[in-house]
Structures are given as structure tokens and as C-alpha cells.
Amino acid sequence: xxxxxxxxxxxxxxxxxxxxxxxxxxxxxxxxxxxxxxxxxxxxxxxxxxxxxxxxxxxxxxxxxxxxxxxxxxxxxxxxxxxxxxxxxxxxxxxxxxxxxxxxxxxxxxxxxxxxxxxxxxxxxxxxxxxxxxxxxxx
Length: 139
Ligand code: IDP
Known about the structure:
Blueprint (H helix, E strand, L loop, with lengths): L1 E8 L1 H5 L3 H11 L2 E8 L3 H7 L9 H8 L4 E9 L1 H9 L13 H5 L8 E3 L3 H11 L1 H4 L2
Antiparallel strand pairs: 1-3, 1-4, 2-3
Bound molecules: inosine-5'-diphosphate.
Inosine-5'-diphosphate binds next to loops.
Keywords: ATP-binding, Cytoplasm, Kinase, Magnesium, Metal-binding, Nucleotide metabolism, Nucleotide-binding, Phosphoprotein, Transferase
EC number: 2.7.4.6
Catalytic activity: a 2'-deoxyribonucleoside 5'-diphosphate + ATP = a 2'-deoxyribonucleoside 5'-triphosphate + ADP; a ribonucleoside 5'-diphosphate + ATP = a ribonucleoside 5'-triphosphate + ADP
């Protein structure tokens, strides 16, 4: 049973030149790239993407960060793609939670600038794919 997930290679990872490394890890895992786009997120899209965090103290700086420069938005496909990518990413905090061998564990130091996003459930994936790739979500 194939699944789709929405992944962001965040502006810190793009600025540091990790796009190739991260896409390579995705491909080596066996996930298929169904859509891929380099863009600067609008405040509207970023705000909607992170709406569940609107009341958190870090929300304003999270929006500033995520709109601060180009990011790569992608849709990945594969069996258990949602869990598979979150395994590749590692836990939210790159030092406290993410293990070495994961993207965040290998390359991150800060909870906010943690290189990647991956949808956390089928419902989130559907919502996020519709938000970032409206043309794809109806297929
Ligand atoms: P996730 O990205 O691992 O699913 P969430 O809890 O959904 O983690 O948080 C969304 C994003 O918000 C994180 O990836 C990170 O960029 C940022 N974030 C989460 N917790 C903190 C924090 O304590 N301080 C600053 N930024 C945070």
C-alpha cells in the first residue's frame, strides 16, 4: 500500500548546501520523488502549514525562518512513506532527540533550524500536499 508525504527541505538546509545530500538519502531509502519545487514560501502558506503551532511562543520566529529564503517542497511516495521519512529525519530537536545517522542528528544543532519537515499523519499529509501542491492533491 503506497502512501504520500509532504517534505520540506527548509531554508537552513538549502542555504548550507544540503539539498543533494538529503535527496540522496531519500532516494537511497527507496522513496519516490513525485513532486519537487524550489520556492520561497509565502507568509500565507507558511502560516497555514504551521497553524497548529499558532499559540506557541516560537511561532513568530518559526514563520520568519521558514519564509527567510528558498526551500524545497517535495511529495514523496512509497510504502509507509510518512513514517519512513520521519525515520530518516530524526526527532525534532537535533541534539536532544535526533540520533546520529538521521538528517537532523547528523547536520543540526537547533530545534528550529532542523533542516527538514515531514508530514506526521495521513491527514496532515493530505492537508499539506493540498497546500503546497494544489494541482497534485486531486490526482
Ligand atoms: P516536527 O517538525 O518534528 O514534526 P513539530 O513539533 O511539529 O516538529 O514542530 C514544527 C517545527 O517547529 C519544528 O520542526 C521546528 O522547526 C519548530 N520547533 C519545534 N519546537 C521548537 C522549539 O522548542 N523552539 C523553536 N522551534 C521549534
